[in-house]
Amino acid sequence: MTDVESLKETQEKYIVPGLERGLLLLCEFSRQNRTLTAPELARRLKLPRSTIFRLLTTLEAMGFVTRSGHEYRLGMSVLRLGFEYLASLELTELGQPLLTQLSNRINYPCNLVVRDGRSIVYVAKVSPPTVFTSAVNVGTRLPAHATVLGRILLEDLSLANLRDLYPEEVLETHSRCTPRTVLELFDLVQSDRQRGYVMGEGFFESTISTVAAPVRDHSGRVVAALGATIPSAHIGDERIEELVRQVRQSADELSRLLNYNPNVAQAATLMRG
User: Fold this and answer.
1) If exposure means fewest CB atoms within 10 Å of the residue's CB, which of 1, 18, 40, 81 is most exposed?
2) Has the keyword Transcription regulation been applied to this entry (predicted)?
């Protein structure tokens, strides 16, 4: 038996089935499925309705789900856990004031995102008091390969890493700008890396443009993407240079607060190589 097989067997031995089922049930709720009925959950999880009923009753008693008639939705306990976790991140604590300052200067919504597998997750957001309102909120998840902010967060991955993350031959398309293959995505991301920032007009949504830059930690690794959202399919040439400068300046400042030193990080990279 290999070490991996041994570890897997040990993990399976100590898994609590009831807890696993409860967590899987909570994961069925999403932006597309904000409410679900017990029969729907039973069908999705391939579990008896009696089991689903017991799980829902327990979760409801603890505030993790709420019920309205026959429909269930996530409760405040889930939201509280998520927001308290996000607020506990050093990245968020350090980044929030910088986002506020940047948003005040450029008068556009500004965001901080991290990567979770194939998704980006918004962990901080500041919006100015304007008519334009962004559709994303803290906790929103979007596909990494199809977003400007996601491209920033894929910069450290090699072609082999990307192939492991996206084993499919054709990537899911979200707009005419979405790269169709892993190789196309890799080439795009490497160009972004060399440039030091990304400016995407209508990349994910046709009427929205984004300017983003990487945030690095002490090791030089990209740990977040900091960006500004512009409610326009095209940014005038006279504004691009200033927006890029402001966004990069804020991302560099957050990197500095995370103890990023370009010279030290470069030396560490050479030693690893």
Assistant:
1) 1
2) yes
Q: Distances from the Cα of 206 to the Cαs of 31, 201, 209, 231, 243, in angstroms?
A: 21, 8, 8, 10, 19
Residues 217, 91 contacting (CB under 8 angstroms): no
209: its two tokens = 């443009």
Q: What is the pLDDT of residues 58-94, one digit of tens each?
A: 999 998 999 999 999 988 787 677 655 655 567 888 8
Q: What does the block give as tokens for 180?
A: 């169709």
Q: Which helix (H) or strand (E) holds 222?
A: strand 222-230
Whole-number percent of the chain with pLDDT over 90: 44
Residues 101, 96: Cα–Cα separation, whole Å: 9
End-to-end, the C-alpha distance of the chain in Å comes to: 32
> Would you state the pLDDT for residue 41?
95
What does the block give as tokens for 217? 């930690």
d(CA 235, CA 209): 7
Query: In whole angstroms, what is the distance from residue 33 CA to residue 73 CA?
Result: 9
d(CA 272, CA 153): 21
| Higher pLDDT among residues 162 and 137, named by residue | 162
pTM score of the predicted model: 0.67
Residue 5 C-alpha from the chain's centroid = 31
